[in-house]
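Lecture 7 notes: from sequence to structure.
We start with the chain below.
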Amino acid sequence: MNSRIATWNPLSGGLSGSAWHRPMTPPSTGKLEAILLLSGGLDSATVLAIAREEGFALHALSFRYGQRHERELDAARILARTRGVISHRVVDLDLGAIGGSALTSGTPVPKGRTPGDLASTIPVTYVPARNTIFLSYALAVAEVLGVWDIFMGVNALDYSGYPDCRPEYIAAFERVANLATRAGVEGTRSFRIHTPLIQLTKREIIQRGLSLGVDYGLTHSCYDPNDEGVACGSCDSCQLRLKGFAEAGVTDPVPYQGGGPQSP
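Predicted structure tokens for the same chain:
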């Protein structure tokens, strides 16, 4: 499985090759640093704002893993550029070579699933071991940079039932992080996986993000956008997003195919 790391320096706006190296850090932030898994979606944008509010300087990490909704990476780049991260790395990782998911293949993305469906079945949009792979990369970067904190936007309430979004999974991976790394064994601190959204509803996530100034018009959630990157409005991710905005009493600022639905 091939991968390539590109490091984006927000201070110059450019990509700086493929080496694993410490990005330039603003000289006098005096902040703790953390890794942020930044997909470009609503949840990761909210976690970005929460982590910054908590005083962390962030190294953002995104993945081009063969997803059909690669439009989310455009959103991730904009968020990284406008929300003050230290660096943004995009990892090329071909999970489509493994298969097993509608997000990395030509298998149709389910549309119009009912709340009962969302609660009872793991859909074909599940990507095998995706969060384990992403967290492993984040852990490796954290170990190289001497960073002990990793933030991600998983949620176990308003979600599609993915097993790698549950609290027990996150707790298990955190144990692995501290058992399977030299830094974890020899260090004076422990790796921590921060999941501030894991027990929030989508309404609560949106309300929290708005209180922190998140511009959700910059985010992308849809699993099956059209060629122009416009959201379908009926996949699981779109439905959960629209439900959250409706329950929050706020208009979703992103466009949808056919012109809606956007408002509550």
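Points to note: The chain has one domain: 3-250. The longest strand covers residues 56-64.
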